Amino acid sequence: MKVHDLFVRVYPETDMPPVFGKAESTLYSNFLAFNYHFGGKMKNTLKTLLVLLMLSASVFAFAGGAQEPAAEAPATPENPRVKLATTTSTENSGLLAVLIPAFEEATGYKVDVIAVGTGKAIAHGEAGDVDLIMVHARSREDAFVADGYGVNRRDLMHNDFVILGPDSDPAGIAGGNDSASAFAAIAAAEADFVSRGDDSGTHTKEKAIWAASGADNSGKWYKEAGQGMGAVITMTNDMQGYTLTDRGTYLAMKDDIELSVVVEGDPILFNPYGVIAVNPELHSHVNYEGAMSLIEYVTGAEGQAIIAGFQKNGEQLFYPDVIK
After folding, report:
1. Distance between CA atoms of residues 293 and 287, nearest Å
2. What angle do helix axes 288-298 and 301-309 make, rounded to 10 degrees?
3. d(CA 124, CA 305)
4. How would you classify the pairing of strands 315-316 and 311-312?
5. How far is CA 93 from CA 88, 194, 254, 303, in A?
6. Domain range holding 253?
7. Please, how many CA atoms are within 13 Å of residue 191, restricted to the half-sphere of its CB?
8. Could you read off the pLDDT of 146-159 as tens digits, one per residue?
9. In a domain, 302, yes or no
């Protein structure tokens, strides 16, 4: 027999709901036992008072036992604002929209993100306009540290670059894995190619591939956008041309474009990311403590797990370099 049925038999004048949770069931069982002990002869007023008291006590005890204690919020840092200059790929891919809020919740810091090309991010660091940089051009990162602008560079993550092109493939490069030969074929076909043209890490890689190809890219078919990765992919899609992109941004956008990966797997297309604090001895005003807190987080277990788990349509966009 259900608790409700028993309760109505003992207390028929009660108008109670037909469904009970665990706390209410415990309450009514206790009430029945108590009433039975006194022969069911308690007056209605006394019984009602007893029910109300037991309801309050039982529900309170049940709720208190079922919930975890609330986690304490992190103490607000003395200087809670952190300025990060980063390549556009970390933002266009959506990674920062997941990684930065997690860091802020864990530490109490608030991060101001400046998403630009690697060259501009490095320039912001050299000028002391930001507290740290997150970029992907290793030779330039090493120079940034060697010249005294940055300290404590850490490997962060990697993916790879790919060459995108239309299904019509006028340069005939689809399925290849030699990026220099592909660029030479694009030049020979005078097929539209959209370059970042913004001194970014992707632009730096693109220029290295053109140099390896030995091809002349001075024709009208070669277009320098001066834009971020997302904008360049959109422009390339509109003209059904070719471009070089990091795989993460492509995966984040591929459902909205009619371009495919036509060349991949060349060792020169490896794309590592690093994170570097701005040197506080050169720029005493920077938030070095906040910068190092962010660096420790993104290269630590929690940050690396977020990077490893970040996917679009079931595909991983970045691979952590510290904890694998």
Report:
1. 10
2. 60
3. 29
4. antiparallel
5. 8, 19, 11, 16
6. 76-324
7. 21
8. 999 999 999 999 99
9. yes
Name the DSSP class of 319. E
Contact 282, 293 (CB under 8 A): no
Q: What is the pLDDT of residue 240?
A: 98
Q: How many structural domains does the chain have? A: 2
Same domain, 57 and 157: no
Measured distance CA(238)–CA(142) in Å, rounded: 37
Note whether 107 and 94 are within 8 A (CB). no
Separation CA 310–CA 16 (nearest Å): 49
Per-residue model confidence as pLDDT tens digits over 175-184: 999 999 999 9
Give dist(CA 210, CA 92) in Å, integer: 25
pLDDT above 50 for 206 = yes
Would 71 be classed as within a structural domain? no
Same domain, 279 and 314: yes
Q: Report CA-CA distances (Å) from 318 to 133, 210, 236.
A: 18, 25, 23
Per residue in 104-152, pLDDT (tens digit) is 999 999 999 999 999 999 999 999 999 999 999 999 999 999 999 999 9
Count CB atoms within 10 A of the CB of residue 17: 7
The CATH number for 189's domain is 3.40.190.10
**Shared-domain flag, residues 99 and 207:** yes
In a domain, residue 82? The reply is yes
Indicate the pairing of strand 222-224 with strand 193-195.
Answer: parallel
- Note the pLDDT of residue 74: 83
Element containing residue 264 per DSSP (H, E)? none
pTM of the model: 0.74
